[in-house]
Write a structure and sequence with these properties.
InterPro entries: WD40/YVTN_repeat-like_dom_sf, WD40_repeat_dom_sf, WD40_rpt, WD_repeat_EMAP
WD repeats: 30-67
Shape: globular
Number of helices: 0
Helix content: under 10%
Strand content: over 45%
Number of domains: 1
Largest sheet: 3 strands, antiparallel
Oligomer: single chain
Structural class: mainly beta
Radius of gyration: 12 Å
Strand order of the largest sheet: 1-2-3
Number of strands: 6
Keywords: Repeat, WD repeat
């Protein structure tokens, strides 16, 4: 499964299928940061997603599961 992840200034993480060619495509959303997301990164086998927050200075680990 090919995925892409984004983080925004509201602390929200979105995971979408790649390639994502349509604006406002369906996505899985998660919220865990209290402020902006500075980075998102998949691990080497795409089972985990890591995100870092700005003001909250946290690192979150997200589990990626197939539907």
């Amino acid at each position: 499964m090919n995925l892409i992840a984004t983080g925004n200034d509201s602390g929200e993480i979105r995971v979408l299928e790649y390639p994502c060619l349509v604006k406002n495509s369906d996505s899985v959303k998660g919220r865990g940061h209290s402020s902006h997301v500075t980075s998102v990164l998949f691990n080497n086998n795409d089972e985990l997603l890591f995100s870092t927050g700005g003001e909250d200075q946290t690192v979150l680990q997200w589990s990626i599961e197939s539907e």
